[in-house]
Amino acid sequence: MAAANRLVVFIALISLTSSPALATDGKPLQDYCVADNFFNNAVPMNGFACKPPQSVTPNDFTFSGLNKPGDTANPAGFKVTLVTVDQIPGLNTQGLSMGRLDFGPGGVNAPHIHPRASEMLIVMEGSLEVGFVTTLPETKLITKVLQAGEAFVFPQALTHYQRNVGKGPAVAISALDSQNPGTQRVVAAVLGSNPKLPVEVVAKALQADNNVAAQLLSKFK
């Protein structure tokens, strides 16, 4: 895509997710509330306390790095660069975050959920197969192959994935309507919890015998 088109798409995503009517984190009650990391590290709370306005700087609203490709030299062939309130304290109370997703050939962002956010993804380069699964009783897979410039929405808290089906690398940008959307990977949650789920529970869930369940559990340290 041309640089101008990428910029238009980028601004559109930000505008969509920053709408108070669409943000899941609620409407801010002041111009901004920059997260005070010193205070928040000492006093756990739901959300973040505000930094004193006199100590706020432009750096509190800035992040650099989305122009840099992520390292996909890993078993999944995938890397995400997240930009949440942890990276930009000024996102606190603004109800949005985003990320850059890099895929090597055949790379997969394995099935996962964002418990606190809906997500819009736009492909910037390459071809991605994307999809999500609806809840019971249908558990229907809704999937599509996207090309550069096409977008797809993942509803809040539904299991979803992306897979590079092109011959080269793929890049996507995602926007989420929460400053801290959270991520839970489905397989890792079942097989890699700490402490481990009981073998018998995993065996029943997978409709397998205990030996198979134990072997799968052993793969996640």
Automatic annotation (TrEMBL):
Superkingdom to which the source organism belongs: Eukaryota
Positions annotated to bind oxalate: N109, H114, E119
SMART domains for this protein: Cupin_1
Any one cellular-component term (Gene Ontology): apoplast
Cysteine disulfide partners in this protein: C33-C50
Annotated keywords: Apoplast, Disulfide bond, Glycoprotein, Manganese, Metal-binding, Secreted, Signal
Protein residues bound to Mn(2+): H112, H114, E119, H160
Main localisation: secreted
Molecular function as annotated in GO: manganese ion binding
Start and end residues of each Cupin type-1 domain: 64-214
Annotated signal peptide: 1-23
A Pfam cross-reference name: Cupin_1
UniProt key word GTP-binding: no
Compartment annotation: Secreted, Extracellular space, Apoplast
Role: May play a role in plant defense. Probably has no oxalate oxidase activity even if the active site is conserved.
Family: Belongs to the germin family.
Name of the protein: Germin-like protein
Organism, as annotated: Linum tenue
